[in-house]
Amino acid sequence: MVRVKICCIKSAEEARLAIGAGASALGFVSEMPSGPGVIGEGTIAKIIATVPPPIATFLLTSRTDPAEITAQQQRCRANTIQICDRLTAEAHLALREALPGISLVQVVHVSDESSIDEALELGRRVDAILLDSGNQSAPVKELGGTGRTHDWSLSKRIVQGSIVPVFLAGGLRADNVEEALHSTGAFGVDVCSGVRTNGSLDAEKLSSFMEAVERAAQQIAPADRGPTAQAAGG
């Protein structure tokens, strides 16, 4: 089974549509320096309150101060924090202590060979890694939602070496997600713009995307997806 996270959820209706299509996780975008899908924390909290278990609710944050991230989680009540910017080891440890039972997912923006070492080291501190195509060093930070793909050969090496699950994001659509999964063996995929029309979740695009993921999942053996996927039941 390949996990699918539908990101940039903006309403309870979109949440229900995504869950009905088979999503195992939903992403909610809090304040960001750039990118789509940002909604207020009050709205995030209201939507999350309607999401049934065992669906994972990801709060995307651009904050880097552990106290601020903790306060966001307590306001929004997400069961997973998606950290979109770089944090120190001390900050990750502080979040672990402040938020017991809350999963931590660290975003790594894949750019070159250095991203491999960065991701594998971060995997020792968090519950999962999410590979995206932003740029944390840009004048206005790109922390996600760029609609761009990156070098999947680098992502494959991260998947193969990671001790935690790896999600793949960045420019995924129904017409390329099969190739992406075959190329990387990722544990899961994360999509926003690829299943939207004029910013709104599109039922037809969503259905096509999920069908493409299912086709890929049927063709990829657990052994091709690395030790993490095998341990998690593939």
Q: What's the topology here?
A:
Layout: E1 3-6, H1 12-21, E2 25-29, H2 41-48, E3 56-61, H3 66-76, E4 80-83, H4 89-98, E5 103-109, H5 114-122, E6 128-132, H6 152-161, E7 166-168, H7 177-184, E8 188-191, E9 196-197, E10 200-201, H8 203-219, H9 226-231
Helix pairs in contact: 3-4, 5-6, 7-8
Report on the architecture of this protein:
- The chain is α/β, with parallel strands linked by helices and 234 residues long.
- The protein has one domain (3-231): Aldolase class I (TIM Barrel).
- It has nine helices and ten strands.
- The chain has helices at residues 12-21, 41-48, 66-76, 89-98, 114-122, 152-161, 177-184, 203-219, 226-231; strands at residues 3-6, 25-29, 56-61, 80-83, 103-109, 128-132, 166-168, 188-191, 196-197, 200-201.
- Strand 7 (166-168), helix 7 (177-184) and strand 8 (188-191) form a beta-alpha-beta unit.
- The longest helix has 17 residues, at 203-219.
- The chain starts with a strand and ends with a helix.
- Residues 229-234 have low confidence and may be disordered.
What distinguishing features does this structure have?
globular; 8-stranded parallel beta barrel; 10 strands; 9 helices; 234 residues; two-stranded antiparallel ribbon; disordered C terminus; alpha/beta; single chain; TIM Barrel; 38% helix
In terms of per-residue confidence, which ranges show pLDDT below 50 for 5 or more consecutive residues? 229-234
Outline, from the CA principal axes? Answer: globular
What class, by secondary structure content?
Answer: alpha/beta
Largest sheet: 8 strands, parallel, barrel
Number of helices: 9
Strand content: 15-25%
Average pLDDT: 92
Quote the distance from N terminus to C terminus: 6 Å
Overall CATH class: Alpha Beta
Strand order of the largest sheet: 1-2-3-4-5-6-7-8
CATH architecture: Alpha-Beta Barrel
Instruction: Count all strands and give the number.
Output: 10
What is the number of independent domains? Answer: 1
Reading the helices and strands in chain order gives EHEHEHEHEHEHEHEEEHH
In percent, how helical is the residue content?
25-40%
In angstroms, what is the radius of gyration? 16 Å
